[in-house]
Amino acid sequence: MYNNANELKALCEQSGKKICEVAMEVESKLNETSIDEIRKKFKENIEIMRQACNKTLKKEIPSISGLTSGMAKKLFSYMENGNTLFSKDILRSVAYSLSCFEVNTSMGKIVAAPTAGSCGILPACLFMVAEKINASDDDLINAFATAAAIGTIIEKNATLSGAEGGCQAECGSASAMAAAAMTEMLGGNIDQCFHAASMTITNVMGQVCDPIAGLVEIPCAKRNAIGVVNAVLCTDLALAGIECFVPFDEVIEAMYEVGKALPMELRETGIGGLAGTPTGIATRKKIFGD
């Protein structure tokens, strides 16, 4: 069992195994089930994610509130037809994240990994890398297991909840999970995985959770998009040999302290930040009345 990054790293080094392998072995022991069963469950969840990441790329599905729709379709069309600044790999991944998010806000089926509000980041990143390197479904399962290990550490030592720790705890954690998983997929070592995860969190330290009208739509969708870019960039930084100055366990502790210091108006209450702007207030009244 592991409770933090140092313990997980020690288990990996003692056994000579990757994060994904140790994560599945621990999960198997804790839940008294076989690794084959765990992999089967991962595969089922991956298929749900894959469908969500592709569902609105060419078809607009409005959210229940009517606040958002068509973002994935617009970006995917722009990617296919335009002269873009970002590479098509990056934009495709961002489009995946927006599609997954739009499925969520239209009450479709998603996997909350780690939360519904950040559901697009992790699958979008891993599907993009899998397509880029022609990874197998088994490789994808391993990557999601690595991501799960990072998420478990964050959950144990801080929080994954925007209501408790701000958006840094939701989209930030999702980006950290994605960055570590992508780093391992691309041949990075254990230290590089944790450096990638650490940098993603430090890049959004203090990010508030301020959904307009209290609905997980605006600005959450765009934060899923930027979460993808954050994770991809930090993966490349780590693989280039760039390190995070502060170790992962300390970064997570700092994130938790910052989250607790945020006023309640900035923790998913729909009161402060963008939710408290004239536009945010008017939107809330339009949807829910005075």
Summed up:
With 290 residues, the protein is an all-alpha fold. The chain is 66% helix and 0% strand.
What's the layout of helices and strands?
Layout: H1 5-15, H2 19-31, H3 35-55, H4 71-81, H5 88-105, H6 121-133, H7 137-157, H8 162-165, H9 167-185, H10 190-203, H11 220-239, H12 248-261, H13 278-288
* Portion of residues within helices: 55-70%
The gross shape turns out to be: globular
Residue stretches low in confidence (pLDDT < 50, at least 5 long) are none
Instruction: Give the topology string: H per helix, E per strand.
Output: HHHHHHHHHHHHH
Structural class designation: mainly alpha
What oligomeric state do the depicted chains represent?
single chain
Strand percentage lies at: under 5%
For the secondary structure, the number of strands is 0
Task: For the record, give the distance between the C-alpha atoms at the N and C termini, rounded to a whole number.
Answer: 51 Å
Largest sheet: none
**Total helical elements:** 13
User: What is the residue-mean pLDDT, rounded to a whole number?
Assistant: 97
Radius of gyration (CA) equals: 18 Å
Task: Write a structural description.
It is a single chain. The chain is mainly α and 290 residues long. 66% of the residues lie in helices and 0% in strands. It is built from 13 helices and no strands. The protein has helices at residues 5-15, 19-31, 35-55, 71-81, 88-105, 121-133, 137-157, 162-165, 167-185, 190-203, 220-239, 248-261, 278-288. Helix 4 (71-81) packs antiparallel against helix 5, helix 6 runs antiparallel to helix 7 (137-157) and helix 9 (167-185) runs parallel beside helix 11 (220-239). The longest helix has 21 residues, at 35-55.
